[in-house]
Each structure stands twice: as C-alpha cells, then as structure tokens.
Amino acid sequence: MLSIWQIIGIWVATALTLMMLSFLYRDNPFFRLAEHLYLGISNAYIIWFTWDQIIEPNFINRVFFPPSGTSPAEWQREPWYIIPGLLGILMLTRMFPKIAWLSRWALAFYVGYAAGVSIGPTLNSYILAQMYSTFPLTNVSFNANGVVNLPSLINSLLIFIGVVTVLVYFFFSYEHKGFIGKTARLGIWVLMIALGASFGSTVMARVSLFIGRARFLVQDAEPTYHAFSILLSLAVIIALVAYFLEKRKARPAQE
Amino acid sequence: MVFLKKQFPMIIAFSVGILMLIQFFIPSKASQAFYETMNLWIPVIGGFALLLGIDSVVGTHIKKVQKLSSGYGYSLVFLISFVAMSVSWIVWGGLENTTGPFSWMFFNMFVPMGATMFSILAFYIASAAYRSFRARTPDATVLLISAVIVMLGRVPIGTWLTSSLTNTKLWWLQFPEVSGWLLNVLNAAGFRGILLGVGLGIIATSVRIIFGVEKTYMGGME
Amino acid sequence: MTQRERYILYLLVALLIFLPLIFTFNVFENRPTPEVRGVYDTINSLNPGDVMVLSMDFDPGSEPELYPMALAVLRHAFSKDIRVIGVGFFSPQGVGLGVSAFSTVGDEFGKVNGVDYVFLGYKPVLIAAIQAMNDNIKGLFQVDAWGRRVEELKLLQDVPKLRNNVKYLVVLAAGETVRPWVAFGSAKGGYPMGAGCTAVSFADYFSFYQSGQLNGLMGGLKAAAEYEVMVADDYLKNLSGILEKSNSPFTVEEIKELMVKEGAPKYILQALSKLPSDRKFNTAQEFSAAFFNANLGAASAGMNSQSFVHAILTVFIIMGNIAYFRSRKKKRAGGTSA
Known about the structure:
The complex is a heterotrimer of chains A (255), B (222) and C (338). Chain A is mostly helical and 255 residues long. Chain A contains seven helices and no strands. The longest helix of chain A is centred in the C-terminal third of the chain and has 44 residues, at 178-221. Chain B is built from nine helices and no strands. Classes of the chains: A mainly alpha (255), B mainly alpha (222), C alpha/beta (338). Chains A and B meet through helix 1, helix 2, helix 3, helix 4 and helix 5 of A and helix 1, helix 2, helix 3, helix 4 and helix 5 of B.
C-alpha cells in the first residue's frame, strides 16, 4: 500500500518525465522548467554530498573536531590531513580571479600524482597484458587429445592480424603505400568492423534508455491512479491547443 | 612572483610525479606508506574540486533574476529548487534520512529527469541510423553490415529468426553466434589496437607532464 | 528527411516500445551468452561468507540499463549468502541509486546492513580511490552512504582492505571506469574481475574480455535480462522438489505453506508472493512458468520492445539503402544517356 507522499511522488515523476519528453517536438516552456528544476536540485545535491561525505568526514573530523557521537578522549587527530585540506582550499581560489593562480599548486600536485601513478599500471594492463594475449600461441585452446582446436587457432590468427594491421594504420610516420598501404587498408576494415559493432551497440543502448522510462510510465505510474494516461492526455491537449494557437498567429501574418 | 606562479607548480608536479613513479618500483615499507598516504590525500583535494563551477552557475542565475533579464522566470525556478533542496538537507538531513524531503526530491524529481534526459537520444539515434546509414563506400558497407549483425544478434528476435538452425550443421550461422564471434574476434582486435595506442599516449603524456613539457593543466591565467 | 517523416519515425519507435510493455507476451527466448555466464558462474562458485565487491559506477542517466543489472547481481549474491561491499565511483548522483539497490534487495533477503553488506558511496579521483580501497578502506571512507561511522560496520572489521580479502569484483560502469579498475584495482589487488556496462561501451571492452583481464562482460539491457533469466532459473530450482511433493491444482498459498515447513529462505517466499494468491495452476509446468516470469525483472520486460525497434530499424536501413542504390543507378543512367 503506497503512502500519500509516494503517490504524489509518482505523479510528480510522471509529469516531469513527460515534460522532459516534450523536447522531442520542440523546445518549450515545460521542458525549460523541468531542465532548470533539474539543475537546481543537482547543484544543491553536489554541495550536500561534498560537505557531508567528503569534506566533513575526511578533513574537518580528522584535523579539527571529532565527529558527532565520538568523545574527544576516543578521537585520534590526524594532523597531516591539513595538507590535502589546504590544497583543496587552494583549489577553490579558482573562483576568485585575483588569486586564481594559487589553484595551480593544487592542480600541479594532483596532476603530478596522476601522471606518476599511471605509468606502471598502464604499461602492465593496457600494453603488456594486451600484447601478450594478441600472440596466437597464448590464446589457442587444445582438444582433449592435445591437438590444437582449429577454430580457436583461426580466431587467434585473425586477432593477431587484426591488431597488427590496425597498429600499422595508426603509424603515420611512413607513407601508406605499397605493402604498408595494403596492410593499413586491411586495418581500416578491421576498424570499420569494430566501429560498426560499437554503433550497433550504441543504438541498442539509447533505445534501452527510453525503454526504461517507458516501463516506468506503463508499469509504475499507470497503476498509481492512472497517472500516465491522465497526464499524457493533458499533455496532448496542451500540445494541440498550442499548435492551433500558433497556426492562428501565423495565418494573420500571412494575410 | 613569476616563480610562484609558473615554476613552483612545475616543481610540485615534477616532485610528486617522480616520487609516485619511483615508488612503483621500490617495494619498501616507506615507499608503500607514501603510496597509501597519497592515495588517501588525493580524494580530499578532488572533493573540493567538485564545488568548482557551482558558484558561477548560481551567480549567473541570481544576476538574471536581479536584472529581470529574458527568461528570468526559469532562473527563479532554478533558485527556488536549489534553496528548497539545500534547506531540506540542513533541516531534515540528506540521503541518510530515507523518508525525508531531500530523498523524496532526489528519487521523485532528480532521478526521473536525469534518466529521461538521456532517453530522448533513442529517437535521435533512430533517425540518424535511418538517414545516414548508407553503403556509399566499401568501408561504409563493412561498418553497416557489422552494425546490423550486432543489432540483430544482441536482441531475442535475432535468436528467434535463426532458431531453426539450432542443433544443425549450420548452428554457427545463427545471429547470436555470428555477432558473438564478430565481437570476440575482429571487434576485439580493432579496439585492442586503439587501446594500445591509448596506453602509449597515456605514458607519453604522463612523462611530458612530469618533465614540464606539458603545461596546459595550469590554465592560461597570468 | 522532412519534419513529417521524422515525427512519423518517432511515433513508430514510441509505439513499438510502449505496446509490447502494455501487451506482454513470451515468444522470444533470451539465451544467456558466454560473456554474461562468466560473471554468473564466478559468483556461483563463491562460498557462503565470501566477500565480493560491487562497484555501481553509474548515475541516473544510465539507470535503465545498469540498475536492473545491479539488482540481478545483488539477488544472485545474496541468495548464495555472499557478503557484498558496494561503492560507486562514477558520480555523486549515483550514491542514491546504490542506497536504493542495496536497501531493496537487502530487505528482500533479510540481510543486515553493516554485517552482510555495506554501501560506502562515492569518492572523487577514481585511480586514487581504487588504489586506496586495495590497501585501506577505512582510511578512504569515514562514513557509509547512510552516514554511519565505518567503525560500526562489522563487515569492514573483517575486510579492512580488498587485497587478499575479496574473491571477486563486479564493476557496473556507465563511463570509463572499467579500464582503471582493471589496471589499478584487479591487477594490483590480485582479485578477478567482471564488468557490466552500457551497450555504448560494450564493444570497447571485448579486448579485456578476450585477454582474460575480465572473466565476464555484461553489456546493456539484454545482458541484464540474461542475468535475470539465470537468477529466476536459480529461484525455480528451489521450487522443483516442492512441486513434486504437492498435488495439482497448485495454489500459491499451498506451495508457500510447504516451503515454510521445508525451511525455505525468505527470498523464495517473497518471490512466491509476486504471484496472485488466489490463482490456481493446473500443472507444475504452468506454475513454474508463471513463477519464472513473475521473477524476471525490469530488463526482461523491455526485451520485446528492444527486439521490435531493432528489427524495424534494420528494415528501414535496408529500405533506405535500396532507395539510395536506385537513385544512384538513375543518376548514372541519366548521366550516361546525356
């Protein structure tokens, strides 16, 4: 049994969903209203989250005050956290043009960390592990009697040829003509297959997103006092009225 | 002053970068302690960075309402929702209060709107696929065929269309099998080539940042 | 493409999505693929009490695809009494979805927050957060997503860090978080990893799946539906013995009583309550089919719509190309004759 606030919530969610979807016809006041509502809630949420989940527990409660519910006797101050706290505050100076240059120190610290820490794992996981599994002998499977499984051998050879030809295509230091040109051409075809698969998947993804909303409207909103059908009918009436009003405005202009 | 604005940040980036790079190769306790400390400090700095941008968004809308510019009504809606969400956090608590107004607004307003915003793309991609998917060149034809195979292989109707081939000698021609093979072999090869390039690019850019060749992260401020 | 053609296409797509949701039917089989089975079989192989990590790296923009996936994976893990540590490193807005998923499924299974599962929330700077999780979870998270201190959470007393303590990681990613988890999480921490992602990035991650860095890969709504099918199948296995002991016609109440007598877990009794209590089923197969369909989730509900839209788009693409080749032939013929 839903409470009154849950019922109101579903009606509000349905109305806002339809207001957002109205953009499919054209930009309109209902969509703009919903968009600004979304932005307002989103920005306030970020401020809550940043204070409640990051700054207060990870900085304030480590350096200055114990968290609520913890006695000062039990609390262990961690003074070194003043350093990231200060660097974080320096990051915020970006909001004030006169002292914005101070944020470069915090950015440099952060970017230096990211640059230094990335090199080893990138080499291991994105390059060495990938290269290892490209070579045919590393990913071939064998039958029960120890004989190479022919389809897996063909697949592993195709992978090897595919990766090499794609890398040749991306190597622009030599002109793509002759043998290198033909290899690069094959690389383009492999890339086209990969990008085609990606596009096909993207179509699937986008359609899935709307299916999710449609499912909400039909299976969650509609059973709740016909929220979907009532609000949709209202939306259609408003759209038709707006359309005819616009047509009337356009006719005198033509006349 | 120029030193503090230009060279000092580069010294910071170099020192931190080199230390993080070296610690990867040194398995000592001190190196490990340094590594763990940095991993705990960086999210604190990143947390403050989340607040950047909010001041300009809120400021823009406040100015619009003050000057009564065109569309100031929408800015008013923004400010009212911003204040309402903030007040409900301060008075009744955030998401930890699962029955409070903050949670109510998040689940009944923010989540539906956020989900719907991206769902509109379904129609745009449908019209894009219809308009632009033409086999103009051999490359485009290959892309088109690959996309269609994946689109049909990744839905149950594709399985149904070729279900008569199950348990026959041509089982491998079923849409799910063909799309599975395409994704696991040729598609994997293509994206692996791209990934190798990306990996090398990450390493090159990281080295450039550490040694001060790459300075764009500092911005164009004087 | 004229504006009128565009709106007709939009209307057609909308109808093909809405109608199968309103008038449901089961014709098209959703066969689990090897990539999705990889995640399912790995979780199946874990023992009760083992700990796995579920990283819900998505926000409301990807909720339709990844939220059903999260629910299915959590249902599977909790049915095996696996303890789950949850995080969400994509965006702060994803925390609410994590809170909702863990609460919903946790209540279904009678799991205790803090003992059987924790959801810690979001921390910025993905590569730092992942590496910190490997070595010191309580250093990174001071409070969980509900604002409770981590010292109060029993699960984190048993698992202070992921390295050497965690048996499996599943990342459900809306954006680019799978690659960092592979390089900085799984590889450095020494635990196996599977991934779920939106269909947009699904094709990209096959290079990791093929290399074995991911032992399972779930892409998009279809993968979520496949997982739901496997979980519903799992639930159904609990019923088969009971159905043999009872007599037709089968009612939900009778089966429930029998299951309570047999000491069935809470989630099965909850699963049974999804069927109408007054309905009578003439055969065990009818009952099983109804139970199975009632326990599929949101992803499976959308598969018919997905199928029809893909089919119609394929037809339109073929028609568009036929028209294109015809007009090209005409132009060439017209050019030659001139």
